[in-house]
Automatic annotation (TrEMBL):
InterPro entries: FAD/NAD-bd_sf, Geranylgeranyl_reductase. It comes from Methylacidimicrobium cyclopophantes. This is FAD-binding domain-containing protein.
Length: 370
C-alpha cells in the first residue's frame, strides 16, 4: 500500500488534475488526528494526501479508552459507524496499592477502541473517499505551506516512559481501572473479546535495566518499582501478548511549540495527560476544528497564514481550559503519590466526579459539533 513520497504539495496535483482548481493539503502523520482530518477534508471535496512513516495495522502506546467525545463529533467526522463496532464502556474504578477507593460511572459513554483496529479502519475509509495514503514515508522537514503536522507527541526531555501491552485474560473489575502509584499510574481498559489494554505512564529516567529481562519482565519490574505491584501480578497471569508490547520514552506533555507557518493538530498540538482518558477524543476534535479553515485555504478563500490563525484560535478556545485543569491535576497526582489528598477528597466524594469529568474532558456547553 506504500507509494513513492510526493515532493511537496505539488505532486498531489498529478492525482487530481489542474481542473480541480484547488490547492491540495498534505498531512504529515497518519494517526488518529491525521486520518480523521484527511477523512473530513475528503468529505469536503478537498484533494489531500497523508504521509505516514509506519504501516497498518500497528500497535500504539495508548490507553485505548476513547472518552469525552462530544455527541456530534464522531458523526460530523463521518466515523461513527467505525466506532460503533467497539464495546461501549461506562464503569470505572480508581485504586492505589491495589485497593479500590473510588467507583463511578462516566457521565458520557466511552469506547474501548483498539488502535490496532481503529487506525487501520480509518486509513481504509480515507482511501475509500479518494485520499492519497503514502506509507513508509518519513518527512525530514514537515513545516511548509500546505502541510499539516499530525505526527503525535514530539520528543522532549527524557522524563516520561510510556509502556503498553494487551492482555488476553485480564478480567478487569470495571470497564476502566486506574491504578495510581509513586510517580506514575496505569490504566487497564477492556477492549472486548475478553481482552484488556494495560498502559502505564511513569515519570523519571531511572528504570530497571532491561538486560536479560524479556519485555514483559521489564514491564513488570517497572510496575513493581513504582508501587503498582497488583498490576505486575496481573501482568504475570493475564496472558500478555508479546507482539502487542510497545514502549516510548522522552516525550512531553502539554502544549507544544510550533514554527511560524505550522498548523499542528492532535498530540502534535497539545498532549493531554493520559489519566484524563481524553487524548483520543481530543485528537479527533482538533481534526474536525481544523477541517473548515483548511478547506477554505484549499478553495482560495483564506491564505495559509489566515487558515493557521483560524485553526489556532479554534483549538485554543476549545481545549485551553481542559489542558489547564489536566496539567494542574497531573502535577498534584505525581506530587501527592498514592494515598494523596486528591484521592482522599475524591474517595469521600467531596469533589463531584461529573464536575471533574467536565473540566478534564470538555462538555457540550463548550460548543457542540454537528
Amino acid at each position: 500500500m506504500g507509494r513513492t513520497k510526493p515532493e511537496g504539495s505539488s505532486a498531489l496535483l498529478g492525482r487530481w488534475g489542474d481542473a480541480v482548481a484547488m490547492k491540495p493539503v498534505e498531512i504529515v502523520g497518519g494517526g488518529l488526528a491525521g486520518l480523521a482530518l484527511g477523512i473530513a477534508l475528503r468529505k469536503r471535496g478537498i484533494p489531500v494526501g497523508i504521509l505516514e512513516a509506519a504501516r497498518y495495522p500497528r500497535h500504539k502506546v495508548c490507553g485505548e479508552f476513547l472518552s469525552g467525545g462530544d455527541p456530534g463529533l464522531f458523526e460530523a467526522l463521518g466515523i461513527l459507524d467505525l466506532l460503533e463496532r467497539f464495546p461501549i464502556q461506562r464503569s470505572l474504578l480508581f485504586a492505589s496499592r491495589g485497593k479500590v477507593f473510588f467507583r463511578s460511572t462516566l457521565p458520557r459513554p466511552a469506547y474501548g477502541a483498539s488502535r490496532f483496529l481503529l487506525d487501520a479502519r480509518l486509513a481504509e475509509r480515507f482511501q475509500q473517499l479518494g485520499g492519497e495514503l503514502h506509507l513508509g514515508e518519513r518527512v525530514a522537514a514537515p513545516s511548509e505551506k500546505g502541510r499539516v503536522v499530525a505526527t503525535g507527541r514530539p520528543r522532549g526531555e527524557a522524563r516520561w516512559l510510556g509502556i503498553r501491552i494487551e492482555l488476553a485474560a485480564a478480567s478487569p473489575r470495571a470497564d476502566l481501572e486506574m491504578h495510581f502509584g509513586k510517580r506514575g499510574y496505569a490504566g487497564l481498559a477492556s477492549t472486548g473479546r475478553g481482552r484488556a489494554n494495560l498502559c502505564a505512564l511513569l515519570e523519571g529516567s531511572a528504570f530497571p535495566r532491561q538486560g536479560a529481562l524479556s519485555r514483559i519482565e521489564f514491564f513488570s519490574a517497572c510496575l513493581e518499582e513504582r508501587g503498582l505491584g497488583s498490576l505486575a501480578e496481573l501482568l504475570g497471569r493475564g496472558e500478555p501478548l508479546p507482539e502487542s508490547f510497545v514502549a516510548v520514552a522522552g516525550f512531553r506533555l502539554g502544549r507544544n511549540p510550533c514554527e511560524a507557518e505550522e498548523i499542528r493538530i492532535g498530540d502534535a498540538y497539545a498532549a493531554i495527560p493520559p489519566f484524563t482518558g481524553n487524548g483520543m477524543a481530543m485528537a479527533l476534535e482538533s481534526a474536525l476544528l481544523a477541517a473548515d479553515p483548511l478547506a477554505d485555504y484549499a478553495r482560495g478563500r483564506l491564505s495559509w497564514r489566515e487558515a493557521r490563525g483560524s485553526v489556532e484560535l479554534l483549538l485554543w478556545q476549545r481545549l485551553r481550559r481542559r489542558m489547564r485543569w489536566a496539567l494542574a491535576l497531573h502535577r498534584w497526582i505525581l506530587r501527592d503519590g498514592v494515598g494523596g489528598s486528591l484521592w482522599w477528597l475524591l474517595g469521600r466524594r467531596l469533589i463531584p466526579f461529573d464536575f471533574l469529568c467536565g473540566r478534564l474532558q470538555g462538555s457540550p456547553s463548550e460548543g457542540e459539533f454537528g
